[in-house]
Amino acid sequence: MSSVNTSASSPIAVDLLITNVQVYNSYYKEFRTGDVAVKGDKFLYIGQQSSDRFAAEQIIEGHRRYMIPGLIDIHLHIESSMVTPATFSHGILRRGVTTIVPEPHEMANVFGLEGVKEMIAASQDVTCDMMYSIPSSVPATPLETTGGSIEIADIDELMRTESIICLGEIMNYVDVIRDPECKTNQILRHMKTHYPHLVIEGHTPKLLDLDLHQLITAGIDSDHTHQSIEGMTERIAAGMFIELQEKSMTPEIMDYMIHHDVAEHFCFVTDDVMTDSLAWRGHLDYIVRKAIQMGMAPEAAVYAATFTPARRMNMSDRGAIAPGKLADFILLSDIEQFQIDEVYKKGLCVYQQDQPYIQPSSQPQFPAHFYQSVKLELLNEQHFQVPVHNDDGLYECRVMMVKDGSTFTEERLTDVSVRNQQLMWEQSGYGLIATFERYGKNGNHAYGLIGGDTITRGAIATTYSHDNHNLLVVGRNPQDMAIAANEVISKQGGFCVVLDGEIIASLHLPVGGILTEAPLEETAVAVDQLVTAMRELGYKHYNPIMSISTHSLPVSPALKITDYGLIDVNHGKVVPLLTGATRNSMNSSY
Question: Residue 285 belongs to what H/E stretch?
Fold first, then answer.
């Protein structure tokens, strides 16, 4: 066989020629020195014989820098950073992230189908490609009140009118296994029948053996939750795709990934990134950098942040630097430190390390009623007294125990005094956690005790409480709790930290009570101040905002709270604050 000799032909016109770079080849997982030609928004040529073949509008001398595909994050929630899609795009492009798959289930919990559509609409003109997943679990369980829901008819509407790439994480794994007729199973059957090729994402913490296999049989074949060696190896052996976020990057997990042939079965994702971390530490680039620092070869780390996520989501047009692929790429001066010099999107430079990178100002991006979503009257100190229907005495009481290093909680049982049909929680040695339905639907509220690595004084209130986003208040005295709650209510959502009757930090989140349209850097400063204030109250968690905001997440083990009451997550049911065990029917000297 012979090839056609084109040496005598006129040079091919291209838009961009990058010369003398170490190009990452995804198919061999190695770097190869050469040149790269880009025509329009796609790669045309990657090789070593370009000098007389192309007439380029722009030539970039690579100086043997490293060239890799744009990073792809296939599991994240923009709302976790508390900013709009436009701000988020600005924040991640400088980090080399050029494609994401956001799941807007936080906005869906507040506004239902309209929330999803408005998030997609707000993403249309941003630079980063945002390929949306449909929130599948809104509400996450039937044990909470939300502002909206996503039903099968809503899924059909989104599939018909929007560019949807997958069904978002199935969160209610308990009902999937135990209740064949639950809403989630109805959705799964509908997807298999009408959209059999659509990717279905999963959320399967701690499930093993038969429970895990039943979930996979139902069509859920990925997991992004906190991994253990036992759970991860079982998942991979059963054909499940693993999406590793930072909290799973333990030495044991990373050692396993480095020394076993599992590159095709996992990728890196961020899931939830706080605003200050996004602004100052990084995004998916931070995960890749950390993996390299933990001993993973740069070639393997890049593969897990580009090629495997693209393949998982059937994105055949990206994830590799190859002919015909989308020209999303990064130029790096140091691959070991993952030092990003320039980022290109569809062949155009969108970030240069040595040039100013300023976020454009933006106008309100959502409908007017998105800024008026907290329909809750102001509270007073009486709202933080806990009425019970028990005689005076000591009673066994459930306590939600917060643990640093995880968003999981544990249940502890302790004896608490009851007097005059009031739980004497202030004398118990624990704090109070309370939640109030804020959509004007039913006026539900619930109480619990809280301890462990949480605050030891003052109070915190927020409407940023996954996934229902009702008003959540944690405190050590009713006075501070009322002040914090009312500040959040009056500002139509956000965070407030109070100590000794004074507001010491706050964050305004007026869009649905969960997002701000303020610039990234400004929001990052406010978030940093918020975290500092939470730690001043005694919070010991590595991520206090994520910790407190998941106290109301009834799919995250083990004891959580919603407006329905305390939730035993592992059994998927409401449990009473007092267990019924009586320690002393006489008056207590508490």
Answer: helix 284-293
What pLDDT is stored for residue 4 in this prediction?
53
Is the distance from CB of 270 to CB of 246 less than 8 angstroms?
Answer: yes
Amino acid (one-letter) located at 419: R
Q: In 3D, which of 524, 533, 550 has the Cα closest to residue 271?
A: 550
For residues 380, 384, 390, 395, the Cα torsion angle rounded to the nearest 10 degrees is: -160
- How far apart, in whole angstroms, are the C-alpha atoms of residue 224 and residue 137? 15
pLDDT along the chain (590 residues), means of 10: 58 96 98 97 93 91 97 97 97 98 97 98 96 94 96 98 96 89 95 97 93 95 95 98 96 98 98 94 98 98 98 98 98 98 98 93 90 97 96 96 93 97 97 98 98 98 97 98 98 98 98 97 96 98 94 94 96 94 51
So what's the pLDDT on residue 155? 98
Give helix 113-121 / helix 152-161 axis angle, nearest 10°.
20
Task: Please classify residue 558 by burial: count the beta carbons closer than 10 Å to its beta carbon, then call 0-12 exposed, 13-18 middle and 19+ buried.
Answer: middle
Query: Burial letters for 137-157: b for 16+ Cβ neighbours within 10 Å, e otherwise?
Result: bbbbbebbbbbbebeeebbeb
User: Using CA atoms, how far apart are residues 567 and 317, in angstroms rounded to an integer?
Assistant: 44
Question: In terms of DSSP H, where are the helices of 65-206?
Answer: 85-93, 105-111, 113-121, 152-161, 173-178, 183-194
Q: What tokens does 580 get? A: 């019924």
Judged by DSSP in three states, 16 sits in: strand
Residue 219, both tokens = 């069509």
Query: Which pTM does this prediction carry?
Result: 0.92
| CA geometry: angle 513, 518, 523, nearest 5 deg | 85
Sheet with 97-102, strands from edge to edge, namely 71-76, 97-102, 129-130
Q: In whole angstroms, what is the distance from residue 551 CA to residue 561 CA? A: 6
Distance CA 257, CA 254 (A): 5
Classify burial at 500, counting beta carbons within 10 Å of its beta carbon; exposed 0-12, middle 13-18, buried 19 or more.
exposed
Alpha-carbon span 227 to 256, nearest angstrom: 12
Distance of CA 278 to the CA centre of its chain: 12
Sequence letter at residue 441: K
Strands 71-76 and 42-47: unpaired
Cβ neighbourhood burial of 276 (10 Å; 0-12, 13-18, 19+): buried
DSSP, collapsed to helix, strand or coil, labels residue 11 as coil
Cis peptide before 139 (omega within 30 of 0): yes
Residues contacting 3, CB < 8 A, separation 6+: none
Per DSSP, 45 falls in state E
